[in-house]
Every structure is written in C-alpha cells, then in structure tokens.
Amino acid sequence: MLEIEKYSKYSDTWRNLLFGVALLIFVFGGMFFYTSNHQVSYAQEVDTEPKVVVTSIYDKFLSKDDVNQGAGDVTVAEPVRVPQLPELIGELPDVNNYSAQRIIVKDVETGIVLFAKEAYQKWSIASMTKLMSALVLLEKNADMTVDAVVTNQNLIGTHMYAGDVYTRQELWNAMLIGSSNKAAVSLVEDIWLDEIAFVNRMNEKAVELGMTDTVFVEPTGLNAENVSTPSDISLLLAEALLHTEIVETLQTSELSLYSNERSKKHNIWNTNWLLLGWIPSTVDMVAGKTGYINHSLYNFTARFITQQERELDVVVMGANAHEARFTEARDLVLSISEVYSWPE
Question: How far apart are CA 52 and CA 158, in angstroms?
Fold first, then answer.
C-alpha cells in the first residue's frame, strides 16, 4: 500500500511537470507566431511609404514633406553658368573715325560694353522712339485684324492719308517697316484712346527697363525732346527683340498698302538699308530700327551676328549722313570682332 501511494505521488509530480512544460511551449510558441505575422504585416506597410534618406544632421527635425520638397541639404541646386568674358587682344578703333556723335557696342551674352563714344550722354532719338511705342502697344494685346482709321493729325509722312482705313496689323507694319508717323499715332488713338496716358506709360516702361536717362513726350520721335543715350537705347533694343511680333516686322523688307478710299496702292520699303542690301555688308543682322529728324541727324540701332557667332548690339546716334549710320555700324562690328577674343 505504501508502494502504491509512493508511485502515485511521483507520477503526479512528473505529470504536472510535463503539463507545465507543454503549457509554456504553447504560450511562447503562440506569441512567436503572432509576433512574426505582425512584423511581416508592419514591414509591408512601412515599405509602401516613401523612404527618406538622411543626408544632414538637421534632417531629423524635418517632416517627410519638407524632405520631399527639398528642404535642408536633400537637393542640390544646379551650378549657375557664368558667361565667359571677351578679352581685348588688339587696339580699339579711334572714336574719331566715326561721324556719329554717340555710339555703343555691347556683347549681348555678357552685357559688356566693347566700344563707346559719349555712350551715356543724351541725344534726340527720332524714330527709334517707335520701338518703345511698339512695346507699349503690345501690352493691350489688341485684336490686330480690326480696322482702324488713319489719324487726322498733321504729321510728316507720305505713306497714308487721314481717313484711310487699314487693319491694325497694316498700321503696325507701316509703323515699323516704313517708320510711318501717322500709322504710329493712329494705332495709339485706336487702341489706347488717350495719347497722354500712352506717353506716360512709355516713360514708366523706360524706368522699368532701367532707361534712367530717357524721356518721351510723344510716340513718333518727331519731337526733339524725345531723348535718350546709346546705353539706354541698347536696353530698349534688347527688350524689343524679345518679342516675335516686333522682330518679324523689322525683318520685313517691304509692305504694300491699298487704300479703298483712294483706290490706290502704295509700296513701302524698309528704312533699314542694310536689310535691303542697299549697303553692302558681310555681317549678318537680326533686326534694326532707324531714326532721323533735323535735330538728331541719322540714328540707327541693330543687333548683329559676327563671324564668330557672337551677338553684338550697336547704337549709332548723330551720324552725318544717311548712309553713314549703316556703314559705321557695320564697320564697328567688323573692327570689334577683330580686336576681341571670345572663349570657346
């Protein structure tokens, strides 16, 4: 009897021990299985989010959105390209070789002045004024297919007569191709309605472009009080050539107008003789604009392309002859190309 009780006692002990071990295996095994499944699920959820690479000690203070938008040191801006300056390798031409009273030649890419003669002294600008008139007219974004009546103002010009009706586009072309004063004023009256407001805007625009030595009193250039400097006109030319409407018109050799009121056709040649080939030249030209009144003598501004494929802006003011403004501008480009070297 004692042996039976002894055996039962030890059996119960081992049975309890084995049960406890099995229970522990079950509990810890279940926990391991649960944890493993949830780790996989969590990892999958994390993998769907954008990964942020810390590249700066400050990144830990940034939100994910900040990093994605390039905050801190995450994104690096592209280096700014610095234009290579032209180098003077020869002797500049004598300013006295040119009859023009005011001259400037600028490298377009760098803005460097390559040659100057009284370039910051004021001079009457004559019909180069129309470049500014064109810029201000463009601000209205007017429908150029609409008809407009030629002004009845008594202005110098033989291209059209008061009461003639042309489209705004035809007037625009006449203004820039033939430098028609009546076309310019007709457009101002038709599109802006108020010439005083228009001239005020011309002067505001000049200030915006940095033309601090320029004054406009009317939109044609007939008044000698429209004054500027070669330096300022180079700024005006650069702005004007940003507009396709101006460039394409200045590059047009001739224009034919037909007046229904007078049943008469009139042909207008571009006032730029270099464009027409009437002045021989081996230099390519983008576009240019002339100007003349008795007080200003002969003015001309244009952008040229040298044989080295460099763009130069030239302003010639107060040349002593009609042809001289073109030949002197041409010769300046050729001379400057020979005495400067541009890096490849």
Answer: 73
**Residue 117 in contact with residue 100, Cβ under 8 Å?**
yes
Phi, psi of 215 (to 5 degrees): -135, 135
Give the rounded percent of residues in the chain with a pLDDT score beyond 70.
76
Look up residue 189 and give its two tokens. 């009256």
Segment 286-338, tens digit of pLDDT: 999 999 999 999 999 999 999 889 999 999 999 999 999 999 999 999 999 99
| pLDDT tens digits, 241-298 | 999 999 999 999 999 999 999 889 999 999 999 999 999 999 999 999 999 999 999 9
> Cα dist. 296→12, 31, 134, 302 in Å?
126, 98, 21, 17
CA dist., res. 199 & res. 111, Å (int): 28
Q: Which domains does the chain show, CATH number per domain?
A: 2-68 (no CATH), 87-341 (3.40.710.10)
11: left (phi over 0), alpha (psi -120 to 50) or beta: alpha
CA 227 to chain centre: 25
Q: Which residues of 284-303 are buried (b: 16+ CB within 10 A; e: fewer)?
A: ebbbbbbbbbeebbbbbbbb
**Which whole-number Å values give the CA distances from 104 to 44, 70, 74, 178, in the listed order?**
69, 44, 46, 25
DSSP state of 92: P
Residue 159 pLDDT level (bands cut at 50, 70, 90): confident
